């Protein structure tokens, strides 16, 4: 597996990130500890070092399983990312949210479950629309200075908030966000309106969650197989089925799985992207790991772009129209100059 720099940092992470939301069997689904260990073994043997979890995944079981596994392996090899924000206990009114008190409490609890002295990458999990961004960044920077966190990141937050935060952090000399985690796939391209252009501007790596749209892009629902997506989900409507059929067609042409096509698409969009690959079975991960050997052609990308295209709205579509006008004027002026 190749390694990439995470955002504007010197941190080297694998080109695929292992998602561990399914580590644990709470709620009647997921991988037990032995299976989770085998999944992490498979990932590490392929050169994977980037692991993603959160304080609330499986009520903390995900962090516990990862902590037990890494405690018996080389801690320095792995780049462990976890998150804080969402409610993980009922002891107090500040057991959720982006505030400093919850951040500090959550990090201490995560470190205990992970059996670690530090977290490589700490994400704000979801914007609460209450806490000032300067409170978040100052607290994160304090954790970095304390040696409990190495790098900071943000997830599921409006582009303007992230932009304000990184600008403030640069001004104040605080740790800046190096990664942005958002839902992004061929069935969920709306981040292209604001979030991805913002990430490109600030040199932030995007780490797409649900790059396979909950399994919809694997083609299994087209084949009539069962899954955990509700029948009324937008991931299963007629347009989504059309996009999935295009993915399956290209996969058949190349001789690879639909998952490989869908995952690779997220990494060939002209910005730094490391998709989060979740797995509750070793064979699922084994197939997804084959993605690193895939390269989609310009023609493949064009077909996928056309079938999944979205309206950018204002100002994105306006800029596109303006670019056409500017190009037209450019041609006109070029002709005038030649005549002169």
UniProtKB/TrEMBL annotation:
Keyword Hydrolase listed: no
CDD domains cross-referenced by the UniProt entry: AKR_AKR9A_9B (cd19080)
InterPro entries for the chain: AKR_Detox_Biosynth, NAD(P)_OxRdtase_dom_sf, NADP_OxRdtase_dom
Gene Ontology terms: cellular component: cytosol
Superkingdom of the organism of origin: Bacteria
GO molecular function: oxidoreductase activity
Pfam (any one): Aldo_ket_red
Domain annotation NADP-dependent oxidoreductase: ranges: 15-308
Keywords assigned: Oxidoreductase
Keyword DNA damage: no
Name this protein carries in UniProt: Aldo/keto reductase
Species for this entry: Mucilaginibacter xinganensis
